[in-house]
Specification:
With 195 residues, the chain is mostly beta strands. The chain has one domain: Jelly Rolls. The chain has no helices and twelve strands. The strands form three sheets. Strands 3, 6, 9, 10 and 12 form a five-stranded antiparallel beta sheet that branches. Strands 4, 5, 7, 8 and 11 form a five-stranded antiparallel beta sheet that branches. A hairpin with a 5-residue loop joins strand 1 (2-7) and strand 2 (13-18). The radius of gyration is 20 Å and the shape is globular. It starts with a strand and ends with a strand.
């Protein structure tokens, strides 16, 4: 390996490690990145959220509709690592940060709460639960009409249920939110490495 200086053509200097001529790079055989996408719209109301409330597409607590799926495995039942996660909303007044709860199934054994209801994890669902992680506060890029929160430092192992390629998720508020909009939209993009 050789340490070299690079330029992006705009006066910004960067350093990188590159292979010397004739060197061979070894990487995991068969591993590839997968990008999963999901969108939902919160209910058509402006009911304030309390800390620990779920943000979802419906107030239903049937255990199916609050959980959305992202295709993050390249084959049924094949695991990998979630490496990045981004959520975007069309409401530029939204403030509160979110926690992401991950599951292996769309319909956990015991029903989970829906939108604007306090999150209440269930012991019966523990075998279907993958992990939780927190996103930072939402920010608005200059001149933009959206707000975004993202993490690109993740390494969360997952394995979908047999016969599935999806990881299922829900959002939970880390603080109260009073700037919700009726029918507010949320887009999610996540990336994984898998074999």
């Amino acid at each position: 390996m050789v340490d070299v200086g690079l330029s992006d053509g705009h006066g910004e200097g960067h350093r990188a490690k590159v292979l010397e001529s004739g060197a061979v790079a070894v990487s995991p055989v068969g591993w590839e990145a997968t990008v999963g996408r999901a969108s939902f719209t919160r209910p058509a109301d402006t009911n304030n959220y309390a800390a620990n409330d779920v943000v979802a597409s419906t107030v239903s607590d049937t255990g199916t509709t609050p959980l959305l799926g992202l295709t993050l495995a390249r084959a049924n039942g094949v695991g990998g690592y979630i490496t990045s996660w981004r959520v975007t909303t069309n409401n530029t007044s939204w403030v509160a940060a979110l926690r992401v709860d991950l599951y292996t199934v769309a319909a956990p054994t015991t029903a989970l709460t829906g939108d604007n209801v306090a999150s209440a994890p269930k012991f019966a669902n523990d075998g279907e639960f993958i992990a939780s992680f927190e996103l930072p506060s939402f920010t608005t890029p200059t001149g933009s009409n959206l707000r975004r929160a993202s993490r690109d430092d993740l390494r969360i192992p997952f394995k979908p249920a047999a016969g599935d390629t999806k990881v299922f998720f829900r959002y939970v508020l880390l603080a109260a939110e009073t700037n919700e909009a009726s029918g507010q939209a949320f887009n999610t993009v996540a990336m994984s490495d898998g074999n």
